[in-house]
Amino acid sequence: MNVDARLAELGIVLPQAAAPVASYVPVVVQGGMAYVSGQLPFIDGALVTGRLGEDVSLDKGTEAARACGLMILAQLQAALGSLDRVERIVKLGAFVSSTLEFTDQPKIANGASELMAEVFGDAGRHARSAVGVPVLPLNAAVEVDAIVAVKPD
Amino acid sequence: MNVDARLAELGIVLPQAAAPVASYVPVVVQGGMAYVSGQLPFIDGALVTGRLGEDVSLDKGTEAARACGLMILAQLQAALGSLDRVERIVKLGAFVSSTLEFTDQPKIANGASELMAEVFGDAGRHARSAVGVPVLPLNAAVEVDAIVAVKPD
Amino acid sequence: MNVDARLAELGIVLPQAAAPVASYVPVVVQGGMAYVSGQLPFIDGALVTGRLGEDVSLDKGTEAARACGLMILAQLQAALGSLDRVERIVKLGAFVSSTLEFTDQPKIANGASELMAEVFGDAGRHARSAVGVPVLPLNAAVEVDAIVAVKPD
Question: Partner of C144 for a Cys bridge, out of A13, C52, C67, C68, CB 3.0 to 4.6 A?
Fold first, then answer.
């Protein structure tokens, strides 16, 4: 099954690929790898803002991380032409806006990680780092970047 | 000398490779590189928790970073079959749980960096970034991830 | 035009490549990629210290990020022999020392991003992540690391 069919089966509609908020590009493909810029969580077009442990619940944060993952997919589709060119999700970097007491960054980051497994199966199983940060661009709750192996054009 | 002999000479016993705390894998090998997930510091099976500048001393923090490095080696050994397949430690990313006043992240990260030099010699000399973070998963004191060049199987 | 001529045209003088503040190396070249360690912002030899939203202005922070970018170029020149060996700036990672209220990390990181576009044109267009951190080594205001594709020697 191709990835578009799999997305449809899962009922996933990708968002419009967001323009970078500054002087860089969303994806660079080099040496068989796509480097995806840190993506912020948009749900129905609205940025999920706030901080875990303060004004963002565990469920909302996990949903936000999944939204970052969906935006990574949207950026890859825009850059590669098709998600069928994804060979392997190699590494995700998850930055979670956190109070000093919030230590469930892995649960939050799972929102993005489980999306990759759902969409790509074994090819979606990736290495990951997840850390707390005090604040993110535009007060986003989560930011996720990615390294993805791609098949030749 | 092979790496196992070198570890024995240094008196280093690797820990059991820890299971990921969430939906991802410890190591992905792709394009000649092993991407190692962020590893937390376990000493004698117990996680080193707390924050530098607060309740974790410089010595304890450095020891914790070394423990992250040992876990990186344990994960590589489990994924590659043998540490003799390590060609070069390419990059370490060190995240140090820090108060606003603690600015010795490089000294802490040296715990992992010096381990790599001890074990691999010149092949252990790596690029690195080290930053402060307010909090880490499970309240860990340090988290370190890695990119490692590997020889073909 | 070669990169040295382009730097001269832009009136850019690279700083002396700074020695690592600890046990690692500034650049590792592996598999066609140069991995550049996190660089701190030196202006006229003095480190730019402090925190955005507190004692570092938007302009000063942006200038600091540009200084990190200049140090990345200085490190690449020292490691590669010539900046003409740069094929593509692939990814920048920007860590901005930030108060809980400061959310303009992308504007700060642009200091480094726009430098790469000025110097390398299209080859300077890169993927990026930018996040807030509570504190950085030596109390630096900004730290930037890089992944850069290089042409064979």
Answer: C68
